[in-house]
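task queued by scheduler; priority normal; single chain, no ligands, no partner chains; default sampling; output format set to structure tokens
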Amino acid sequence: MIVITRKRASARISRRTLLHRAIAAAPTLAIATALVGRPHPARAALSDQDMADIGRVEQYMDSILTLQAKFQQVEPNNKLSFGKIYLRKPGRLRVEYDPPVPILVVADGGLLSYYDKELDQLNQLPLRQSTAWFLVRQPMDLSKGVTVTQVDRSQGGLQVHLFQTDQPDAGSVSLIFTDGPLQLTHWTVTDANNQQVSVGLYDVQTGIDLPADLFKTPTTQHQRNGGKSH
């Protein structure tokens, strides 16, 4: 999922946390630029049980074609943010933060757009170069583009730890599921500076109709005014 951290306007993208830091490079999308020289996440040898659980996760994620949920985001300083997330596969995502955070993130199938309403500033990058793509691609394949480092099991729970294969220094993601039945409940993003942001989902609805307008690429006020100044 996507993670946007905001220290006033500086959140406009000091870090791109969504595997890319969204794992990419645009200076203002929270998902991040790799810290040169940071050691790669440790890779544990995956057992047959690990591979079976990874297969279950792939099947579960493929079963979700549309999703609507509320979320709670916890930043490294314990600051809380709330909002709504909408997903429609393949390629569509919308993340709305509740006030006072003026952030809107939209994936329209080709671009991932980050719009700061307060600054009237729009930043974009190709969706496939962000880790948002991990959430909205169909089918899900955890052997392509991402590397699973570890699978942890607990009573009634499952965690899958991974990083983007071509950006091993940019950070990692832990997907956390309840298991019985399998359901994604939250994820934690650890960026290149070892800072963690956690996002939890609640009031989750799947298999619902989501209108195409939700995933329309945002425009700035300047663009809506035809490029004219106020």
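post-processing summary
- The two ends are 36 Å apart (CA to CA).
- The CA atoms of residues 105 and 153 lie 32 Å apart.
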